[in-house]
UniProtKB/TrEMBL annotation:
Lineage: superkingdom: Bacteria
Domain annotation Acyl-CoA dehydrogenase/oxidase N-terminal: ranges: 29-141
Source species taxonomy: Bacteria, Pseudomonadati, Bacteroidota, Chitinophagia, Chitinophagales
Gene3D superfamilies attached to this UniProt entry: Acyl-CoA dehydrogenase/oxidase, N-terminal domain (1.10.540.10), Butyryl-CoA Dehydrogenase, subunit A, domain 2 (2.40.110.10), Butyryl-CoA Dehydrogenase, subunit A, domain 3 (1.20.140.10)
Name under which the protein is recorded: Acyl-CoA dehydrogenase family protein
């Protein structure tokens, strides 16, 4: 993959970007397209015809499917070749997650295995641990799982009560406690388990299935992803050898939080794959379902829904691969600097973007499947139509990898902490925006292509800086307790990141003469036009929550100025987008 210029994590908010330095799905190589085809063939042959059996967990079907995926190299695509993997780059690994993301419960099992089930050992294990486990995890000979959540510690992971105490002979640790919601729990061979050594030092351990003292609860009966094995784990004086400590004693939080950065981005990828397939299902149904003697795809209300599905998928798609390429480039940079944990360091650099991607990807999928059911009407409520499964399976994604509320709070928390540590300079841009509020607005017009949209997005960023800067200045340490304000500003940032990413992709497609360039421009302009209203509402809600008097009035006027979008006929744009979708019969951008 061609190396493109990457900016520091979170800096999209204060630095301009250009299309030429933005990686987009149009940059996929021939090898990438071969991987897409291989994944699609695997789903069509091995997974989608057997969804009922998978949901019923018949005949050990999930482990067998993982074995088949392992034979194709899909489980170890991103693992180093020295450990039996294919050694592919991060963009390629992300693409595999996306392409298999429409596999319903299989996608969950696979992502848990080759993500949180394997990466802790790959990136924090000793060489002996890596040699022992990673080659087998890469092929699927061993299946992986991740045991963090407990009955009383979900979002507050460090409040775990599971303990690990040194055995009297000093040769191992006795783990006692309980873990819940463990994906792949019914068949995994190796678990990354978090416990407090000595009662207070949060630590990770590698625990193998069959270890005395480890037992399992029954399969959970879930709303969706029914084919995904989900069980409780019980540890009663479960003895693991000292050599199974993962990382350092008391440093388990470093493993948990760093792995989650990658997991959040990959969840977005999987959600995106599901959204693309569900969009295609909705399009096909709309083309064949007739009412009043015509296909419902000819109705404006249905075309609006189909187009909005495509717009949200396009925006998520673009933001995802923009970030994945930044992580890829940063990983290479850190590798050249001799960092053994290059990928983790790269993912941490873009932890803000990963948190935003988790939110926008899961919510794009939720929108698509919800409207997919609506397009199906009464049939969408029937298990006979797969859109109902997609609807149920989607819901967990807003909870997985940290709830969307937690990720919204993290987005602003990380920004503020990086600003305090000098990693990112938010103060100067925020002060510049305050000065601008005192000046006469610039009413000049630039007639260059996309100039209006570029100015609109620059103004979105000013609105965010204005709100975040004033809130931090006025509330200071109290801001962390004002979750509603933090989430308002996070929503502004999430919309702005997607809007800018989408515009850069449309500009790049236009500059290259891409066949879908005009439709990409329609998508970008429609997204920006609608985002302006959402950002305005979120900004006003934030301002009204902490500002009063003249300060409030000035900031509200500023928010009105910063969220003014040019006039654009979104109805006709959506009809053009829908026409292309209906012609192709699938998501096609």
């Amino acid at each position: 993959m061609e190396t493109l210029a990457a900016i520091a994590g979170g800096s999209f908010l204060i630095q301009p970007s250009v299309p030429e330095s933005t990686y987009t799905p149009e940059d996929f190589t021939e090898e990438h397209h071969m991987i897409i085809q291989m994944c699609e063939e695997f789903l069509e042959k091995e997974v989608l015809p057997h969804l009922i059996e998978i949901d019923q967990q018949k005949d050990n079907i999930m482990p067998r499917l993982l074995d088949k995926a392992g034979e194709l190299g899909l489980l170890g695509a991103a693992f180093p070749e020295k450990y039996g993997g294919l050694g592919k780059d991060f963009v390629t690994a992300t693409l595999v997650n996306e392409c298999l993301g429409s596999g319903h419960s299989f996608a969950v099992a696979m992502a848990a295995h080759n993500g949180i089930g394997s990466l802790p050992i790959l990136y924090f294990g000793t060489e002996e641990q890596k040699q022992k486990y990673i080659p087998k995890l890469a092929t699927g000979e061993m299946k992986g799982a991740y045991a963090l959540t407990e009955p009383n510690s979900g979002s507050d992971a460090l409040a775990a009560s599971t303990t690990a105490r040194l055995t009297p002979d000093g040769k191992g640790y006795a783990i006692t406690g309980q873990k819940i919601w463990i994906t792949n729990g019914g068949f995994a061979d190796v678990f990354t388990v978090f416990a407090k050594e000595g009662g207070d030092k949060f630590t990770a351990f590698i625990v193998e299935r069959g270890t005395p003292g480890l037992s399992f609860g029954e399969e959970e009966h879930k709303m969706g992803i029914k084919g995904s094995s989900t069980r409780q784990l019980f540890f009663e004086n479960c003895i693991v050898p000292k050599e199974n400590v993962l990382g350092e004693i008391g440093k388990g939080h470093i493993i948990a939080f760093n792995i989650l950065n990658i997991g959040r981005l990959k969840l977005c990828a999987a959600a995106l794959g599901g959204a693309k397939r569900a969009t295609g299902v909705a399009i096909q149904y709309a083309k064949t379902r007739e009412q009043f003697k015509v296909p419902i795809a000819s109705f404006g209300a249905i075309q609006h829904k189909l187009a909005e599905m495509a717009i949200r998928v396009f925006a998520a798609d673009t933001a995802l691969y923009r970030t994945a390429s930044w992580i890829d480039d940063k990983e290479h940079e850190l590798e050249q600097a001799g960092r053994p944990d290059a990928l983790l360091g790269a993912a941490e650099e873009y932890a803000i973007e990963c948190a935003m991607l988790k939110v926008l990807g899961s919510e794009a999928l939720d929108y698509v499947v919800d409207e997919g059911v609506q397009i199906h009407g009464g049939n969408g409520f029937s298990d006979e139509y797969n859109i109902s499964r997609a609807y149920r399976d989607s819901r967990i994604n807003r909870i997985f990898e940290g709830t969307n509320e937690i990720n919204r709070l993290l987005t602003l928390d990380m920004y503020l902490k990086r600003a305090m540590k000098g990693r990112i300079d938010l103060m100067k841009p925020a002060m510049a925006v305050q000065q601008e509020l005192m000046s006469i607005p610039d009413f000049g017009e630039d007639d260059a292509p996309f100039a209006i949209e570029q100015k609109t997005i620059a103004n979105f960023k000013k609105g965010i800086l204005m709100c975040a800067g004033a809130a931090a200045q006025q509330l200071m340490m109290q801001l962390e307790h004002e979750q509603e304000i933090l989430m308002n500003i996070a929503d502004m940032a999430i919309d702005t990141f997607q809007a800018e990413s989408t515009l850069l992709r449309a500009m790049k497609m236009t500059n290259s003469g891409h066949a879908n360039a005009e439709l990409a421009a329609d998508i970008a302009r429609t997204f920006i036009y609608d985002a302006a209203d959402r950002i305005n509402v979120a900004g006003r809600n934030a301002i009204n929550a902490f500002a009063t008097g003249d300060t409030q009035r000035m900031m509200l006027l500023g928010m009105k100025r910063f969220t003014k979008a040019g006039n654009f006929n979104t109805k006709d744009a959506r009809r053009r987008i829908a026409a292309k979708l209906i012609e192709e019969g699938k998501y096609c951008f």
